[in-house]
Design a protein that fits this description.
heterodimer, A: 523 residues, 2 strands, globular, B: 125 residues, mainly alpha, Helix Hairpins, membrane (chain A)
Amino acid sequence: MAGKSVGLEDLSVAFVMEPLAAADWLIPGPVVFCLLVGSVLLMLRKRTDLQPLIAIPALVVLCAMTLGLLAHVVVNGTVSMTMGRWLPPFGISFTVDAMGAFFAATSSLVALAAGIYGRGDVDHSGRRYGFYPFLLLIMAGVLGAFMTGDIFNLYVWFEVLLISSFGLLVLGNERAQLDGGVKYAFLNLIATTLFLIATGYLYGLFGTLNMADIAIKATELRGTAPLMTLVTLFLLAFAMKAAAFPVNFWLPASYHTPKLVVSALFAGLLTKVGIYALLRILGMLFPVEREELSFIIAIVAALTMVLGVMGALAQNDIRRAMGFLVISGIGVMMAGLALGSPAGLSGAIFYAAHSMVVMTALYFAIGIAAQLGGSFMLSSAGGLYARSAVLAFLTLMLFLSVSGLPPFSGFWPKVVLVKASLDVGAWWLAAAILVTGLLTTIAVGRIWALAYWRPANAGALEQHAAAQSLPAGAMAALAGLVVLSVGAGLWPEPVLVLAQDAALGLIDPSAYVLSVFPGEVPQ
Amino acid sequence: MEPLFALLVGALFTVAIYLFMSKHIIRVLMGAAILSNGVNLLIFTAGRITREVPPIIGADSDVLQASAANPLPQALVLTAIVIAFSFFAFLLVLGYRAFQKLDTDNSDEMRVAEPVNESAPPLGY
């Protein structure tokens, strides 16, 4: 087997020779860490008492890593690392820009909250079936998707998070869960397969899968290659993952069936990964094609937000109403994508981060409310304000935040998006955002009036006479997320600047390209 | 060679989409299996089809010869096969469990999570 050996002096032809800075290990660090802790938890699956004791500190470490990475990116700009030290585009690159780091940090905070909430919500049997290992593995998938700089690798991370989400969804094995799980699993599998089809075509056209490489080559290929077909296919695949109308029906069919903490995690993270992929592929790699499609995206966005909130208005089950509010929020983010201006994209990025925090917190709030003796049904819930004014107060803040009222985190991105729409004359898109805000206020206001403000009826009270006091861990997780939402609402400056940076990085990807190919002349 | 493969991929996609339109979970599952095979063939075709030149660098050279097969689509397809197979296995079990618990594999009758006659939300106190 010993052929002519290559001299050591030739290695720089194929390998990155510069030693890595210590901080650059934060790029693959969070994903590797999640996979490692996930496997340790899998081995310890019978020690259900130990699981949260390992998982929650691990999630704290994860938050520290992703926040450190965010600081690293804010200070040094986009950073990149190629696996196996192969020179890009031959190795798989992890490239983290402001958007990726921002989403990664926000999603880790949400996961930490879910880990703490899950301690009370998931019983020993649920832990034995792998709640905490799946939580860590789904985070590996989500963070990998936010950080990778390679399209096929993005597909792999989509599958990692999808298979973990299947495991979480059927935790409990109830009839409704199997019913919802079947619809969720099939439609999401079809969506990722569409993504794979588009990736196959993309490889055939470009001969590369590295995103920075694609960004360079797209300009040359634009005239000759059928890029519009390709981008439309990507749009369909990711819109399905993000649950945009008219390919959103898997979401209301399944999101209310799993354990509450699982619903909260899904509502916070999964659809936003679809939005992230839309922003990355359409916003950064194919801006010309996105511009061509912008009218269609805008119509989809307006329909998604308005029909989503109308669905929420029609629901008796509060969890299902929340599922429709997730869809409605996706429409607002798609509106930012349709606009494509720096303001539009930064509004979409800010709104995505807001939605991660607030939707998760909303599910937590209704879960605690249900434990306190209310129910998930609007027709029978009541008297929650009398039971716990603190919970009612926190929930009201979240309701105002999701409606986009000041001074909460939902307000600022909507202001940015409405202004960006009016700037380009898309008054109907601005109107759709505002009408959605109004209808959301009505939907959540009614939930608050009926479930919290209305006195409990006597039968319900007696039934839940032994209802426990407020679960401390769950309340802490809820309060933490509410603080994030209120904090971003009262002091939006840093988030607005960060979202603006992230949007500019999408519109002019030269920093992204330079971080992968240091010698490349920006175009 | 490529047009032939393109037609074959198209045929597989057609069969898969036809099966997706069925109400029965088991047929949708078969559609998903066929679709994933079609996608694998698509990636393979997109990465240049050549005959009988394996992608091996000879002892007297540092680079592949130009007519060699492209090794990257093979790696991609291998990954996609593994993923598709594991998903097929999971969905098969999920579909079977759903059939056991819900007594149907007709998606029209799977209305546990979304009941048909769900009551509207109350209009007032």
